[in-house]
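Here is one chain, start to finish.
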Amino acid sequence: MKNDLQCLQHELVSLRSEISSKVKILTKGCNAHEYSRSQCSALRVDTNRVRSELSEKQHKIEQHVCIIETLKSTLKGVERDSSRLISQKNTSDETKGFAIVQLNDRTKELEVLYEMAKLRLQQMEEQCRVFKCSVSV
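Its structure:
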């Protein structure tokens, strides 16, 4: 019986040491599990933050795309107006050139008429002198 008791005590010591080591292992596992859970929670918070930032950046990108489309439309309008104005300028340059040619022609005509009038005046003055001379004689 003494032997059985010693065996049982030895068994009890062995089981206590086994329990102690298993408690340590379970404690480590529990701690690791809690650490993993806190890491998971931190990652979830970080993921939510990144999703929020992504959503904000996508919204900004959409706004920039709208602005770009508006600017493209405005630029097309400006290019169309610019093309129209260039066409009008070319037309007005042609008209101006034609008007200048006509003015030059009219100026030459007026110069010829002026010279003719001058000659005619001289002829009339000469005729008046001749007439005065013939009347006075």
